[in-house]
């Protein structure tokens, strides 16, 4: 009986893993045009405010933090004109797990991240390469990024601005769970209960 229970528990754990995997989305932005246009609403199951996309590898003003911030070639997203930018709930609340962020022009750039549930974090980033930020903030309806300060890296372009580049965002909850999974889990639980009942009735 213990063996049957252990097998059932293992299957249930596997189902939970599948369910969580179905909810997770890694957003690389590499399927966007990379032409500086806005990230479209609904991309990755969420909406985007003041986030645009660049081909960081082939950006005309490289070298820059856009180029250095590429994690998965070729695209990154950035806060247009250095203004605050947000990820917004599209259909259901989401979890922002992690992302990579790089300053586009200014070293020592301050970026404040505010979640709709009162979460807040301040990070300081440079232009030299991406910084991995792990948040795991849950039940969000919005996350806002506000940048300020820093000093120019003195790239050949001479730009001094407060843009940042983001790549490889992991959002949990953006992709709906397949409807069949809860039904399958219920059926499995019923099957396990019948198996235990039969074992108890053996002479």
List keywords for this structure.
single chain, 203 residues, alpha+beta, Jelly Rolls, seven-stranded antiparallel β-sheet, five-stranded antiparallel β-sheet, 3 helices, 14 strands, 39% strand, globular
CATH class: Mainly Beta
- Principal-axes shape call: globular
Structural class: alpha+beta
Helix and strand succession? HEEEEHEEEEEEEEEEH
- Helical stretch count? 3
Total number of beta strands: 14
| CA-based gyration radius | 22 Å
Helix content: 10-25%
CATH architecture: Sandwich
Annotated CATH homologous superfamily: Protein of unknown function DUF4465
The largest sheet, given as strand count, sense and whether it forms a barrel, is: 7 strands, antiparallel
Q: Tell me the CATH topology.
A: Jelly Rolls
Percent in strands: 35-45%
Query: What distance lies between the first and last C-alpha atoms, to the nearest angstrom?
Result: 14 Å
Q: Count structural domains.
A: 1
Indicate the mean pLDDT: 84
Low-pLDDT segments? 5-22, 175-195
């Amino acid at each position: 009986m213990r063996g049957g229970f252990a097998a059932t528990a293992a299957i249930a754990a596997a189902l939970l893993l599948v369910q969580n995997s179905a909810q997770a989305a890694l957003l690389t932005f590499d399927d966007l045009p990379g032409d500086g246009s806005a990230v479209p609403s609904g991309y990755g199951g969420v909406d985007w405010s003041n986030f645009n996309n660049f081909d960081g590898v082939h950006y005309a003003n490289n070298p820059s933090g856009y180029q250095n911030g590429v994690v998965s070639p070729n695209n990154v997203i950035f806060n247009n004109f250095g203004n605050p930018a947000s990820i917004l709930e599209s259909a259901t609340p989401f979890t922002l797990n992690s992302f990579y962020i790089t300053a586009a022009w200014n070293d020592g750039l301050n970026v404040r991240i505010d979640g709709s549930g009162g979460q807040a974090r301040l990070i300081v980033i440079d232009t030299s390469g991406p910084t991995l930020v792990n948040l795991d903030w849950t039940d969000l309806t919005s996350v806002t990024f506000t940048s300020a300060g820093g000093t120019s890296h003195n790239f050949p372009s001479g730009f001094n601005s407060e843009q940042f580049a983001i790549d490889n965002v992991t959002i949990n909850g953006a992709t709906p769970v397949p409807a069949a999974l809860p039904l399958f889990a219920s059926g499995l639980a019923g099957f396990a209960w019948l198996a235990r009942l039969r074992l108890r009735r053996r002479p």
